[in-house]
Amino acid sequence: FDGGNVAPRANPQTCGRKTTETDFTPWSTPQTPDATPQDSFAIDAGANGGNCVSAESQEPNAPSFEVGTTNPLAGAYSPFVLKVSRDDGTQRLRSLNVNLPPGLLARLAGTPYCPDSALAAAAGRSGREELASPSCPVASEVGTVTVGVGPGAKPYYVQGHAYLAGPYKGGPLSLAIITPAVAGPFDLGTVVVRTALHVNQETAQVSARSDEFPTILAGTPLDIRSIALRLDKSQFTLNPTDCEAMSISSEAIATAGATAALSNNFQVGGCRGLEFRPALKIQLK
Questions:
Q1: Separation between Cα atoms, residue 163 and residue 119, nearest integer Å
Q2: In 3D, which of 230, 229, 226 has the Cα closest to residue 92?
Q3: How far apart are CA 13 and CA 104, in angstroms?
Q4: CA atoms within 13 A on the CB side of 113
Q5: Model confidence pLDDT, tens digit, residues 32-79
Q6: In sequence order, what are the residues at sequence separation of 6 or more whose Cβ sits closer than 8 angstroms to the Cβ of residue 279?
């Protein structure tokens, strides 16, 4: 069918001529025999004109990666943005690991954790329930996330919220993404994905390790195409005070198991304008 903004994705092992047969039974059965009309169509290329493949692992795995702060001024608070996206007909996303540069930190004082009990409750709620009354305290919210799902040139976008949460999977704290999966009249529930935040005790460098993303909800394949995170709580994300060129690296793990190594340049400016007033005190006891 031609749904306007819906385009079929060529799944693995689907190239070639396909035949569809439909059985129609008349009211006058059995005196009148059933009708079995059929039609066929050919698939001779993958999505976006790509090659036909026999397994998803043979599809390309090269998602795009954009990340940084919106105001790259040394020592300044600035929203942090991250977006990973993939083309139609490429390997689906399973999870994401991100390594921040030294000095790109967050001010945790004044932001309470969203309790584990609230996160567990959110996972059991409908999407509309979560939209009407968020499970986590407003004070624990640190940003938003926009997720694009579905095949074709125009994915469907849903928005969720990012909350600061407590220790998780070996990390001293974590980020909890809560997304109500509501699309028009369809309510597929509430998706909760946590990301463990590990902190190097010597350099304070932060590395993030996400849980697996869902691939299907209530029998509906999601086909995640993009994830855009924006941490924009006031005076939360803090730029480094080192103006040397650095990078933010990431690993995008596909559902087929392949890993795509991603990287984006990161650099702040204005270090000459920073104050430099070290103090020294010596006392004998």
A1: 10
A2: 226
A3: 45
A4: 13
A5: 999 999 998 888 777 777 777 878 888 888 899 999 999 999 999 999
A6: none
